[in-house]
Design brief:
Order of helices and strands: EEEHHHEEEEEEHEEHHEEEHEHEHEE
Shape: globular
Pfam families: AAA_21 (PF13304)
Radius of gyration: 22 Å
Number of domains: 2
Number of helices: 9
Keywords: DNA damage, SOS response
Strand content: 25-35%
Number of strands: 18
Structural class: alpha+beta
Oligomer: single chain
Largest sheet: 8 strands, antiparallel
Protein name: ATPase
């Protein structure tokens, strides 16, 4: 389980270290930095997966996401930077930690047209909850990657890694780098859900070829197959309970015609079931969250961005109970601007709530002092 998330130099997150629990709720006013924290988690995952360039390209390139305010270790008098321009993201757990340091392209600007692509300047993987030199397992500086050898010293892994690639992508020898591969597999299992469409042309409303689906696609296109998989090899009783909790007396049924799956919802008082194309936006969205959170093979982290969207307020208690069920099986982070949902989740035992606020353009955790932040160090570039 991730115990610490750290971000520096990204949007409104000048320097933020937060502790994560089994269920973490991120809330706050509009513009407080909730989306920045969510995006930083995605950026961290994309760094480890080797997709950092395309991730930042969607946001306008590295210059568009850099911290723009004064103050901090990278600024001098008048807000002028006195250190390297960088975006840094990292996480720690009881087992391992990982960080990536991204910077502007170096060298002759005329050598490449990709002037907005970030460069991975540094990556580190370590054992334990805090970065220490003696616990470092992998270190990357520019194109050179080294791993801890059997003798205790560092040995070269590659010397010419491209600036847009992750060191985790080349650490593929289980005998030589088992811990690094464990970190890579951990991050690759993270799941992010924030783009569920419910309009008439939404992928979730389209009849699809049905195959066993252990994790719902991020666009919900395999909804019927994911729910059928939960019913057959997952937690069928919980599936039925979550549907009945939101829509009392209702039940789901997946219809297969020639191998193509469609979802139907049987509701009291109706002479026929409703197919996916007929469901209301709120009903469909709730069922998408059911499929996402009751996965029979949950990743090590599931991140839900504004799950309350399109839901009637009466469905929020059922949604909160669904999220709490999921948190009993995997680590969950919920980003929400809905105060009622945040309060419902906060009422649960063991919930960590991060109420964000912005002061002088900088996102902070409301009421938190310097001693409340978990221990963290970035090391030196």
């Amino acid at each position: 389980m991730i115990s610490t998330l750290a971000v520096a130099g990204y949007r409104s997150l000048r320097e933020l270290h937060v502790a994560l629990g089994r269920l973490t709720v991120v809330t706050g006013a509009n513009g407080a930095g909730k989306s920045s924290l969510y995006r930083s988690l995605r950026l961290l995952a994309d760094c480890a997966r080797g997709g950092v360039v395309s991730s930042l390209a969607r946001e306008g390139g590295l210059p568009s996401v850099l911290w723009a305010g004064p103050g901090g270790s990278t600024s001098g008098a008048g807000g002028r930077r006195r250190g390297p321009v960088s975006v840094r993201v990292g996480y720690a757990s009881d087992g391992f930690g990982y960080l990536a340091d991204l910077g502007l392209p170096s060298g002759d600007p005329g050598q490449s047209a990709f002037t907005l692509d970030p460069e991975v300047k540094r990556e580190l993987v370590w054992a334990g909850p805090v970065l220490r030199p003696a616990a470092t397992l992998l270190q990357r500086h520019g194109p050179a990657v080294q791993v801890r050898g059997d003798s205790g010293g560092f040995e070269p892994l590659v010397t010419d890694l491209a600036s847009f690639e992750s060191a985790l992508a080349v650490a593929g020898d289980p005998a030589r780098t088992p811990e690094v591969l464990a970190v890579r597999d951990q991050v690759r299992s993270w799941r992010f859900y924030d783009t569920f469409r419910t309009d008439a042309a939404a992928p979730a409303r389209t009849v699809q070829i049905g195959t066993r689906t252990l994790a719902l696609a991020d666009d919900g296109s395999d909804l019927a197959a994911a729910l059928q998989t939960i019913a057959e090899i997952g937690v069928a009783e919980e599936l039925d309970a979550c549907v009945d909790d939101a829509f009392p007396g209702s039940r789901l049924q997946v219809v297969s015609e020639g191998g193509r799956f469609d979802l139907t919802l049987h509701q009291p008082g109706l002479l026929r079931p409703l197919r996916t194309a007929e469901l209301s936006d709120g009903t469909l969205r709730y069922l998408l969250w059911v499929a996402a959170l009751l996965s029979p093979r949950p990743g090590e982290l599931v991140v839900c961005n504004e799950p309350e969207t399109s839901l009637h307020p009466d469905l929020l208690p059922a949604l909160a109970r669904l999220i709490t069920r999921a948190a009993a099986r995997t680590q969950v982070v919920v980003v929400t601007h809905d105060a009622r949902l945040a309060d419902l989740l906060d009422a649960g035992a063991g919930t960590t709530t991060l109420r964000l606020e912005k002061q002088d353009g900088e996102t902070r955790v409301a009421g938190a002092g310097l001693l409340d932040a978990p221990p963290w160090t970035w090391g030196n570039r």
